[in-house]
Design goal:
The protein has helices at 42-64, 104-118, 120-125, and strands at residues 3-7, 15-19, 24-27, 68-80, 88-100, 130-138. The chain is α+β, with helices and mostly antiparallel strands and 141 residues long.
């Protein structure tokens, strides 16, 4: 896996990442740090990537189990250390999974498998952060 980060130039703290798959991701700093608030902060992208990684796992695990899953949303909230390096210290992930005849036990097991075995991002962040999860199941309309 590769990624190239390029500073967008003088007058700000915006950067563009080009992923190995050829996709672009823009990041910017907060105005107090010289940024212009044009894009997410780099640590926000870390948090978003972690949510995407675990959501992917949960959907895949449920689909492989032949469960009738229609949607998956992960709401993340995080706290960071007060001093440098300001690593994540707490992350809560609330999963809202939509599907027919989904049991709480099955969805919770999919979430646990993601965090214990499959999601590289959350397993890595668990080295510095206490990660908690909750699950809500919604029947499709």
């Amino acid at each position: 896996m590769e990624c190239v980060i390029n500073w967008m130039g003088a007058g700000g703290m915006a950067f563009v990442a080009e992923t190995g798959s050829g996709h672009l991701l823009t990041m910017d700093g907060a105005p107090a740090g010289g940024g212009r608030d044009l894009a997410p902060r780099p640590m926000e992208t870390v948090l978003a990537g972690t949510g995407g990684c675990t959501a992917y796992d949960v959907v895949l695990i449920l689909q492989k189990g032949r469960h009738d899953v229609h949607g998956c949303q992960v709401k993340l909230s995080a706290e960071r250390a007060e001093t440098e390096p300001k690593v994540f210290t707490k992350i809560h992930m609330h999963f809202v999974v939509t599907g027919r005849n989904l049991s709480q036990t099955v969805v919770e097991r999919a979430v646990a498998l993601s965090h214990e075995k499959y999601c590289s991002a959350s397993i890595m962040l668990a080295k510095t952060a206490e990660i908690t999860t909750s699950v809500e199941i919604v029947a499709p309309a």
